[in-house]
Amino acid sequence: METHCPNFSFTSFYSVVSGVVFFWAVIASAGPLRRVEDTHWYPATATWYGSPEGDGSTGGACGYGNMVDVRPFRARVGAVSPILFKNGEGCGACYKVKCLDRSVCSRRAATVIITDECPGGYCSGGRVHFDLSGAAFGHMAVSGYGGSLRDRGVISVIYRRTPCKYPGKNIAFHVNEGSTPYWLSLLVEFEDGDGDVGSMHIREAKSNIWLEMTHIWGANWCIIGGPLQGPFSVKLTTLSTGKALSARDVIPGNWSPKATYTSRLNFF
């Protein structure tokens, strides 16, 4: 079966202003397990975009769409430079970002989820840069000084990787618009731990063969062939630590485009 997906042209909605139960699933490891959390802080720069107290942009280069406007994403979104975006494979990763100016910055770090890419300006030239929602940016300030911090424009920050946590949420798979029995595209949502995806496979009904999916853009993966017959089991392996998780028959036989199907498991 052909598993290569055609090239996908996508233009990010992004502007800089001032910038997937015991009998249902198997959890296994693929290679040595490591913790995604990093105790070391690294230097970077940061700006903010959107409304001063806003949640950031709608949509973005990861393809999460309106999810960025509601919890748990709300006010925690961030765009990153290409070095962290990793051609979309960095989507869903979580970071702590802390500013350094003691005159207006608190010791609090903002925890952000990567939902978008910032390709130019401060994000160019191989630099590590975060373009945060206004709310996430202001969260780093001393109480009452959010406006003063935002007025600084670009600031020096330190950052480190941190596990993603979605309390009460299990990994879900959104079937992208345009999917058919011959071209199936999935978006991964609410992945605890690493947050990122290094590979995805699906298994058709009454089959023992895992079919490899292709990363097309952002947090979106696809497979062509067919006709593909559900229900589908989905296996994903994280990019950062190689942890794997399989959700049995998570997408029903009568699946439909634009529908989201929630598994019964997560990494935490």
From TrEMBL:
Localization: Membrane; Secreted, Cell wall
Domain (Expansin-like CBD): residue spans on this chain: 182-263
Expansin-like EG45 domain ranges (all copies): 59-169
CDD domains, A to Z: DPBB_EXPB_N (cd22275)
PANTHER family, A to Z: EXPANSIN-B3
UniProt xrefs under InterPro entries: Expan_Lol_pI (IPR007118), Expansin/allergen_DPBB_dom (IPR007112), Expansin_CBD (IPR007117), Expansin_CBD_sf (IPR036749), LolPI (IPR005795), RlpA-like_DPBB (IPR009009), RlpA-like_sf (IPR036908)
Protein task: May cause loosening and extension of plant cell walls by disrupting non-covalent bonding between cellulose microfibrils and matrix glucans. No enzymatic activity has been found.
Protein name: Expansin-b3
The keyword tRNA-binding belongs to this UniProt entry's keyword annotation: no
Keyword tags: Cell wall, Cell wall biogenesis/degradation, Disulfide bond, Membrane, Secreted, Signal, Transmembrane, Transmembrane helix
Family per similarity comment: Belongs to the expansin family. Expansin B subfamily.
Entry GO terms, CC: extracellular region; membrane; plasmodesma
Signal peptide: none
Annotated TM spans: 12-33
Keyword Manganese: no
